[in-house]
Specification:
78% helix; mainly alpha; 0% strand; elongated; single chain; 5 helices
Length: 113
């Protein structure tokens, strides 16, 4: 399959965003917000962040650390997306999958309390 056929299949044209990519970016945004909200709630009821680096950052800088970490990850993904537009779908997918899984894990943990 040549590059133009792949672009047509994915609905991508250089400088454009496919419906699937747009949906994934929306999912990334929702997961980002939900992860911050669920983490803030969990911390407020006495739960502890399990990631040692993020735990230290949260203790030092508060929830701003989580927001900055998420914003940094989105910035890296956007740079990747614009440098390699032929792999545009990889950038939001690389954030959406782990962040949605984290949100589901956090929600399940909070629901079990």
């Amino acid at each position: 399959m040549d590059s133009s056929a792949l672009d047509e299949y994915l609905g991508t044209v250089p400088g454009s965003v496919s419906d699937l990519e747009l949906l994934l970016w929306v999912l990334v945004c929702w997961a980002l917000v939900l992860d911050i909200v669920l983490t803030a709630y969990g911390l407020s009821i006495g739960l502890v962040e399990r990631n040692p680096l993020m735990r230290q950052a949260l203790e030092t800088f508060g929830l701003a650390a989580l927001g900055l970490a998420k914003a940094g990850a989105v910035a890296v993904a956007l740079v990747f997306r614009f440098l390699w537009p032929e792999y545009a779908i990889v950038a939001p997918l690389g954030l959406a999958v782990p962040w949605v899984l984290a949100v589901l894990a956090n929600a399940a943990l909070l629901a079990s309390l």
